[in-house]
Structures are given as structure tokens and as C-alpha cells.
Amino acid sequence: MPITITMPALSPTMTEGTLANWQAKEGDSISSGDVLAEIETDKATMEVEAIDEGTLAKILIEGGTENVAVNTPIAVMLEDGEDASALDGFDVGGGAAPAASAPAAEEAAPIASAPTAAPTPAPAAPTVSGTRIFSSPLARRIAANAGLDLASIPGTGPRGRIVKADVEKAIASGGASAPAAVATPAAAPTPAAVTPPAAGDYMEIPLTSMRKTIARRLSEAKQTIPHFYLTVECELDNLLAMRKELNGRSDSYKISVNDFIIRASALALKQLPEANASWGGDKILQYKDIDISVAVAIEGGLITPVVRNADQKGLAGISNEMKELAGKAKDGKLMPEEYQGGCFSISNLGMFGIKEFSAVINPPQAAILAVGAGEPRPVVKDGALGMATVMSVTLSCDHRVIDGAMGAILLKHFKGYIQEPLTMML
Amino acid sequence: MMSDTNFDIVVVGSGPGGYVAAIRAAQLGMKAAVIEREHIGGICLNWGCIPTKALLRTADIFSLINHADQFGITVQGASVDLQKVVARSRQVAGQLSGGVQHLLKKNKVTVIDGHGKLAGSGKIEISKDGKVTSTVNAKHIILATGARARILPGMEPDGKLIWTYKEALVPDTMPKKLLVVGSGAIGIEFASFFNALGSDVTVVEVMDRVLPVEDAEISGMAEKSFKKLGMTIHKGTNVTDLKKSANNVTATFTDKKGKTSTDTFDRVILAVGIVGNVENIGLEGTKIKVDRTHVEVDEYSRTGEPGVYAIGDLTGPPWLAHKASHEGVICVEKIAGEKDVHPLNTANIPGCTYCHPQVASVGMTEEAAKKAGYDIKVGRFPFLGNGKAIALGEPEGLIKTIFDAKTGEMLGAHMIGAEVTELIQGYGIAKTLETTEIDLMHAVFPHPTLSEMMHESVLDAYGKAIHF
User: Fold this and answer.
1) Which one in A31, A373, B8, B244 has a CA-CA gap of 20 to 30 Å to B132?
2) Distance CA B396, CA B392 (A)
3) Collapsing DSSP states into helix, strand and coil, what is residue B300?
4) Does residue B136 sit in the same domain as residue B285?
């Protein structure tokens, strides 16, 4: 399929720029890393490098065009072996995922990224998903034999190339190196390729870079983070009543239960700052800000936009911000700064009727709250059986940072805010 | 005599390790000097690699002329003028030594004539004819003093009847009957040369095969070829006595079973290994460690003494010019703080012997690979199956490849036959890039070339050879 090249965001704040000139011409054969065009922003002129290989088929925006919005398709490339007929009926706008070929966004894996407040240890290896990992054929073979992911192995060869010795070292140290100084778990290599079912039983779906990132990061999370889970039930009736009243007052906002959950989580973390932290290998990194990541399902995967300083924002503010972020997420228009960072995650599957579930921690965070559906359930009140709207939430904790009691206290605070939502107004 | 006595780097010895290190240092902006007591270019250019290749070229041409009839050419009365042969060899050495002098000058490397010796921290004393002429200061000192022929007690060369490589390079006479003691690269090259030019050559080797560092299969093929060309080979045999008379030497051989025999020769060439030149270079009283005759260094050629480095033959095997040059470059780049400097991997250093037939190899022998515990795949392809080899009239030879069955790593490659010394670097690149058998199978080798055998040998290791 032809590849759409879009106007990249060269900085987190860039929304548009000038396409200064094209370095490549239509018909040029393009290799990964070739400079395609130069983009001017208010700050600098930068080069747009090709990520994919192929032929530059059509330039959609001529050099010298000003005010080209980020993510606007600027050119179309044909993959090797395709001819121009592949362009027939190809919708340049349609298929273009935001990160498809923009250098800046490319670095940003969907759920990825360390909180901006925390000094993330730089990985020594070329670990950016989607870019070529330089490695020797022998290193690749040995890694594949051992079921190791090359992306997790630091390269020491010429220009950081991963060589045999690097892979052997990784094997000797019990598997692929986890990020930073995180203790490596006992060797639990993932199989390089799962044996497929008999021919004809399946179709092969190539991995998108988002899928690769999800696979890599969540495998890493489950394999390296000692998870434990705490579940608590929260009665929602007060909250629902308050929500109804608030939403009745104005049309300028429509607060969801989830917005309450975001604010309650932020306030609980504010009350227990020790839990607003990450494992830093040889230290714990406690965050100064309370930035809440909220998982949003999008086509082909999920992404976690971040509500920054959620403890300092009102419900209406949170609600409106979340709507905007979710909308951008679904349109693939989130900027890296909008989904990178975050101290704590919320994953809500209540709308699907899920009663309760356990979520995988989004590294380098130390906790994620899995939110189930609010539903009428029998409850015992003052010795009598009654009905209440009840929501189960499960907190997954990184035991290296959050111990059982700390997690329980965090949930207790959270439950307090949910069940007595007026306290959220304080 | 010298305008300046302070340098960033001073290299002691201008062989292929030393002069290359000095040039690289100068390229990186360091003020560099090289101290040489004899000939710029060292043994390699003047008394080793290069002049022997010049002699062996004569041997090859003479052999071809002797077989000219096979190629449809009638030649009569071809003969060898030894003086001219030697003169050409010296001219070649002289030309290249001059070339290196020019390179040093071009790169603004100061050349200091004399014998260099460490004289305290950062100081080198230079002497000429036993007299101290000057002292220079250097932030970094690289010892590249090389090595010399090993002398066995009781068999000291006299330069007349008993030669080392040096006399053998400038023979005043063509020995009718020649004894070569030692069948390593040096011994066997001289044996090949004199044999081709008509000497009756006997080679004695203490080990159980000729070219003992090579793969046993290659050694076996080499021995057959040498014998076919008229050499006498005594394996597993010691020379226990050399008795000199006025014009000849009677050698006593003792084999493994203790059986002795004697034979008389016009000349004897001693080629029983080399020893590092560690004497009289001021190592005493420093933290530099010497293991037998070799200076101990780390992977970046650093000795135990801060600021002092050692490269090349002085640091031990493999005794190869290209190893010395590479060490020199790595050492200097490390000193200069260059990025992306990596230690030399000796498993990827090819070795070449220019006897007839030629022998070349890189990496592990089959025996070594098995001993190291590898489950191996071995490929072989004979010259007999190669079109170019047949056209050249060189049907004798073999290319052998050894792979790790588990990973496809090329563990070693071993070649014997025409021009293999020019082929081996292909596998050197493959090994350095850490290719597997797949990459070598996918590589396209041009037809018709001898190099096609390299492809076929790899294919054969995996049961896919086409032409044999």
C-alpha cells in the first residue's frame, strides 16, 4: 500500500510549519534515513527523514508552502514493487496514522514515555520502535535462537551496532536487559515466533508500530514489574446524584463518572505522595506533579493521553480536557506532549459491562487503576440488606514502589472521595 | 640535529606497526615522531614480507616457464641469474621503504635516526653506535620494536653456511642442497623459493605436520604438493646437531622414536620461530610486564606503565604485519579519545603463506572448533571443480569452511591453491561483519573467478554445493 508522508511535528509545540523545500524529487528512490524535505518552524529548520523505503511517488505540498498544519499529508511514497497504479483510489488522508512518518512523533510510542518530571535513564540501544536496529546477522541469529528481542540489547559494535558479544552478554545476564538498572527477572525469554496453527487456519496480520510498542512495553511490564492487585467496591449513588445535579446546571460541560474517577485518583495521590512515584532502578522517583494517564481505545490499539496536574483542576475542567484529548486520540492527532509522561493510569472498561479486571502497569509508572461498571448490587447497610450502585476498582501496584498497605491506603482515600464526592470539592 | 624534542607521541620502531601508528597520530593532530635504528619500514618492508614476495614472484615465473609447454609456448634455455633476482628483491624493498619515508614526511612525522630506549617517565633516550645522541619527551610512547629470529643453542647462524631469513634473502650462491629447519610461514616460503629455482630442499619440522598452525587437512595437502615439487619433508623430527665443515654442514636428525640419521647440506636456513625485541629498550625498572620475550598489554595495547604502549610482534602472536598496523591505529585512536574504537579481534585476522601452492586462513581450524565444543558444519570445494582454476592450469587446491551449526557463524576458513592469499580477505570481511552462512550464500560471486569456490564451499557446508 502506498505510504502517506505527513507534515511532522518537529517540536511538541509545533502545530504548523513551512515546507521549505523538497530534497527528493518525484520518482526518486528513497531509502530509510534519506532526507526528503526541509521544514521551517518558528524556531529552526529541520530535515524530514524517510522512515520507509520506496519511491517518492507524488509530492502533494510544494516546497515553499507556508502554514502547513501538522499531520497534513505532504507526499505519497510507493513501497518497493508497487507502481503508480497503486495510487489509484488511494486516500492520502484516510490511512494516515498520526505517527506514520513524522520524525518527532515517531519516537513517541503510543503508551510510551517516561514522565517528563523524571530523568529517564537513556537506553543505550537503539530501541525506538519502527526504526532500524543495527545488528550483525550473527547477532540476529543468536538472539532469535535465544528468543531475545534485539531492541532490548545495547549494542557496542561500530556505531552502536549490536554484535555477537552483546547478545551473548545479554544471554549470560539472564535475558534482555530491562530498561535502566531495573533488576532483570529470571530468564523468561519470549518465544521469537509462536508456532502457527496449521496452514489455512489463519491469516497473517503485519504488526503496526503501535502494536509492536504495546507488545514490547507491556511484555516488559508484566515480566519485570512485580505486580500485585487490590480490589475495592465503591458505592456510586452519592456521586451519581451529584453528577446529575452538576450536569443539570450548565450545558458547558457534561461530567462523566470517569471524570470523577480522574479527580478522585489525583486527590488520593496528593494525599499519599509516596504512591505518586516510579521505580528508578537504584532509587525511587517521587513526582512533584500529579499527571493522570487515561487509557483511550483507538483503532488498532490504545493510547494514554495525560491530564496534567489533575489535582489542581475542577471536574468541569477535567471533563472538557478529557473530551478534547479523547477526540484527538481517536483522530490520531495527539501531540507527543499530550500522551508522554503521566504518573498514574486509569483504565476504564465499565462501559462494556466489565465487572472488574486487573490492568497491566504502564511503565515506568507504579500503579494503574482498573475500573469496572457501576451497577446495582445488593449491599448490607446497618445490618439490613439494601441496594446500591456499586463499582469495583482494582489497583495494580508495582511492589518495588508501593507496598500492600500503601496501596490499600491509596484505595481507601480514593473510595472516600468517590463515596463522598462533596469532599472532592474541597 | 633535531629542532624539537617534545612530542605528543613517540613510536619506537618504524615497522608496519610503528610507522602506521605514527602516521595515524599525525593525522589526528598529534605531534608525532618515530625512532628507527636501521631501515624505515622495519623487517616487513626490508627483510621480511616484501622482499620475500619479490623472490617468490621469480619462483612462480620460473615455474610457469618450466611448464610453458603446457600453455602452448616453447621456451628454451631459461635460466636463473641469482644476482639479478636478489637485486630486484632489494630494489623492491628499497622502493617501498622510500615510499614510507615519503608518507612520514608528508604527514609531518619526525623521523629520528637511532636506537630508542625508555629513560624515565615520558622520556626516551636515543643512541647511535652506542653513544647517547639525544633525549626526547613524549606524552605517549609506543614500543614497536618487533621481533627477530629465534636462535637454538648450539645452532647459531654464522651468516655463511647457516643462515637466518636475512642471509637467505640475499644469497650469494644457489645452494645445491638446502636444509630448512622449521616449516612455519618463513621456513616454507624460503623452501618454496629455493626449491623452485632448483635447489634440493629438505624441510625438517618438529611438529607432526608442516605449516603447523594451519588446519590439519590443509597441512596434509600442502605436504603432498611440496613433495610432488621435489622437497624432502621430515615431520616430527628434531635437528639435534649441525656440524660445520669448510663448505658444508652435516645435520643430525632425531625422530620421535629416537632414531637418528644424518645428511649433508651446502646451506642451512633456520626458521624456528621468532622472539620479541625486549632487550635494551629500557623496560627494566618500569611496571611493564614481560612474558618470556613479549611485552604484556591490554586490549588497547597499554602496558603496565602509564603512557607506554606496545604493539605488533613485540606483544606476541600472531606475528603479522597487518596485526601490528591495526594495533597501532587502535592504540593511537584510543589515546586520541576517538569514538568508536574497538579492540582487535584476533579471530578475524587472516594469515597468508606464499609458498607454492599458497596457503591462507582466518579463524579456527576444524580441530580447534571441535575442541572449543562447537557442533560444526564443514564445507569443502576443490580447485578441480572451478572453471577459472582449470583455465589457469591450477587444478590443485581446496577451500574449506567451518561453521557453527547452531548459529551459522563462520568459525574458520582455510585455503590452499593458486592466489588464495588474495581470496581470504573476503571471508575476513564476512567474519568481521559477523555474517552467517545465509549472507554468504546470498552474496553473488562473479564468474569465472577463483572466488566462486568460496561460495561453493559455504554451500557445501550446508549440502547445497552445485559444482561438485
Assistant:
1) B8
2) 11
3) coil
4) yes
Chain centroid offset of residue A166 CA:
29
User: For A358-397, b where at least 16 C-beta lie within 10 A, e where not — what string?
Assistant: ebbbbbbbbbbbbbbbbeeeeeeeeeeeeebbbbbbbbbb
Helix, strand or coil, per DSSP, at residue B189? helix
* Co-location of B51 and B138 in the same domain: yes
Q: Point out the least confidently predicted range of A121-130, A254-263, A269-278, A298-307.
A: A121-130
AA identity, residue B407: T
ipTM, 2 dp: 0.82
* Chain A residue nearest residue B433, CA to CA: A136
Q: Provide the strand spans (E) within A322-418.
A: 344-348, 367-381, 384-398
Q: Determine the CATH number of domain A109-194+204-224.
A: 4.10.320.10
B232 and B102 share one domain: no
* CB burial of residue B41 (10 Å; 0-12, 13-18, 19+): buried
Domain at A225-425: CATH architecture: 2-Layer Sandwich (3.30)
The CATH class of A3-107 is: mainly beta
User: What residues of chain B, 312 to 351, have a C-beta less than 8 Å from chain A?
Assistant: 340, 342
Residue A119: CB atoms within 10 A of its CB come to: 10
Q: How far away is chain B from the Cα of A5, in angstroms, using its nearest Cα?
A: 32
Contacts of A82 (CB under 8 A, 6+ apart): A1, A2, A54, A55
Q: What is the pLDDT of residues A196-229, one digit of tens each?
A: 556 567 777 877 777 888 888 899 899 999 999 9
DSSP letter at A158 equals: G
Range of weakest confidence among A32-46, A145-159, B407-421: A32-46
Tell me the three cell numbers of residue A189: 525469554
In this prediction the pTM is 0.61
Sign of the CA dihedral A299, A304, A306, A310? positive
DSSP character string of B224-262: HHHHHTT-EEE-SEEEEEEEE-SS-EEEEEEETTS-EEE
Which chain A residue has the Cα nearest residue B339? A159
Q: How many CA atoms lie within 13 A of B74 on its CB side?
A: 0
Q: Looking at beta carbons, which residues of chain B come within 8 Å of A142?
A: 407
- With vertex at residue B79, the alpha carbon angle to CA B75 and CA B84, rounded to the nearest 5 degrees, is 130
Looking at the structure, tell me whether residues B182 and B266 fall in a common domain. yes
Same domain, B25 and B107: yes
Render the burial of A56-71: b for 16+ CB within 10 Å, e for the rest. Answer: bbbbbbeeeeeebebb
pLDDT more than 70, % of chain A: 82
Nearest by CB to B407, from A138, A156, A158: name it.
Answer: A138
Altogether, the residues listed in chain A come to a count of 426
- Domain span at residue B17? 6-148+275-335
CA nearest to A350, candidates A394, A292, A388, A306: A394
pLDDT at site A290? 95
Residue B289 belongs to a domain: yes
- In chain A, which residues fall in CATH 4.10.320.10? 109-194+204-224
CATH number of domain containing B419: 3.30.390.30
Cβ atoms within 10 Å of B133's Cβ, excluding its own: 15
Interface of A with B (CB under 8 A): 136-139, 141-142, 145, 156-159, 163-164
Residue A42, classed as helix, strand or coil, is coil
Q: How far apart are CA A234 and CA A420, in angstroms?
A: 10
Domain with CATH 3.30.559.10 in chain A: 225-425
Indicate if B311 and B371 belong to the same structural domain. Answer: no
State the cell numbers at A283: 532509587
**Residue B112: inside a domain:** yes
Is A145 in contact with B407 (Cβ distance < 8 A)?
A: yes
Neighbours of B57 (CB within 10 A): 16
